[in-house]
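Structure request: Assimilatory nitrate reductase large subunit, Aquitalea magnusonii.
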Amino acid sequence: MGKMGRTETRSTCCYCGTGCGVLIASEDGRITGVRGDPQHPANYGRLCSKGLNLAASAASDSGRALYPEMRPTRHAPRQRVGWDAALDSVAAGFASIIRQHGPDAVAFYVSGQLLTEDYYLFNKLAKGVVGTNNIDTNSRLCMSSAVTAYKKAFGADGPPTCYADLEQADCVLFAGSNLAYAHPVLLRRLEEARAARPDMRWIVIDPRRTDTAVMADLHLQIQPGTDVALFNGMLHHLIWEGLVAEDYIHAHTEGFAELKQMVRNTTPKMAAEICGIREEDLIQAAEWFGHSPASLSLYCMGLNQSSHGTDKNLALINLHLATGQIGKPGAGPFSLTGQPNAMGGREVGGMATMLAAHRDIDNAAHRAEVAAHWGVPAERLSATPGLPAIAMFDALQQGRIKAIWIACSNPAHSLPNLPQVRAALARAELVVVQDAFAHTDTTALADILLPAATWGEKEGTVTNSERRISRVRAAVPPPGEAQSDGWIVSQIARRLEVLLYPGAASLFADTEVASVFDEHCALTTGRDLDISGLSHAVLDSAGPQQWPLPAGAEQGQARRYVDGVFATANGRARFHAVRYQPPAENVSAHYPFRLLTGRLRDQWHGMSRTGRLPQLFAHCPEPALEMHPDDAARRDLQAGDLVRISSKRGQLVLPLAISRELPGGTVFAAMHWNGQFLNSGGINEASQPQVDDQSFQPELKHAAVKVEKISLP
Ligand code: SF4
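Returned structure:
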């Protein structure tokens, strides 16, 4: 693994779902530089601040997990052990619990940071060997509402769009997406497109006046959570002004009559009142969207991380179907993935609610297909859906799940309601954490720590937001005794063969990364995401490719549904008559502020990588709670005051910052700051765990809180 001497390795950035291509310079086993790959179709050589600093973060071994560690007794500190001892203990612990309590007493919590091949192996181990669907992922927090809505509206998951649409759109509607921070290279592509085509319109829907909103032609600063009302009000205007595409609706969709009836009473005036914006602004947005030859929507966590996230996605998709703004250049509903391989996890079915290649757990034929492909008895694949992320940690706290194996994720920082997450991990009989970094909020609670190789050190693939599969390549060997995630999974499987599941080892006999990818591709044959024409060799010779790319095809498909035939049983897209509902937790006299959360431009997730680089703190050096100046004045608060932010679940202390970018009555905190920087796990001490009942995605972007000044003794 990795190369010696001076060399340059073509790979993909490990941060966001943009999926930028990079060229990694290395010399004698050390990464010495990273530049944008001018040939990669996601970025054509561009990189953002995080990408530009990849070499610096990779060059540092500080904080890396270098060797396996284990607690000698339940509450003793972990000690260094050999790989065999650590792997034997994981396998023995899982086997013992499965023997006593059944396969659903264990769980796997994985990550959109895993490569597709690693994801595939984890999913195969959980569903094909252990026989539980209790495998979920931190991508549940990121895009599961988009997945559910695509399936409901189009019959299959996956965006119908591609990045080339950024240059071809006439109207771009950003919904709950601060592209300037979350997907900076895509914003740069749009900026360049607008410079060349000044008639392009940007509409930004966001309660905050973000850096993206500042650049918009129209900023709709809606009240948090009112997106469905806004979209329904826009649709009302489009219908009654004759801006809908009657021919498209008639030929390619169903359910429009019911939707039309439902939005009849959602007038722009009424919708604007709910949203707290001017009626004329709502109408302007509808007019631009409806009149433009090509309208593109870019959306992200602002829609998805909601107790009504699926409905918000569906209401936006309704606008596209009603105007025929889909399946043509520059048009379509384009959900952006947060993590580098959230899309790859969807493809391999690495979630509690789905099977591989967009198959369904409750479909016996689908279970039989997957079982046959893996060579396990059909009854090994459970028909019982697994527990999605929030329910998984609830079950851990209640003792129904007794062992959890966490890979490449930091749930003790990133899940909502952290006091309960910590209690769950403390109660578990066995917590295994597999990570490249030794000192996270979650590794602190691990009984066994397995050191994993990370970006720049391992081989595989990732899929970005536009369904493009790119190679990730090893430029250097991993430090210490770290091993690739796939190697660790297959080692456990081999041990479970001895302890519990005869035949398990043969399922993991060939764990060469290219072979695992071939196995994954073959399982997609005949499915909507068919990539049976792909292999590492094809990617190496032809470069990154979009799915679908079936055997015999020369290249992947840039746009889906161009012929108006959807993946539903009758080929028609479905409208959904969804009504506005307020966020799950309303403000009250005790908790009068709406807490919003989001990203910083130069930090990533729990800062395991970016938090080690001083240059990435220049943009925002300190954590803070932002508050509108009028709210601060009413409470006699000033910038720099220490404030306690409390919800019904927990509390934390942050310095106050004054911001005119927020509407009154709301406060904002970045999600990144964690136990390494604070005397708490971060803002999720206070966030709330209510999930969307269709996608099971939690409402991380809205909680009711109070804010009080604290005095230092
Ligand atoms: Fe990496 Fe995303 Fe920045 Fe591209 S936009 S360089 S993928 S963090």
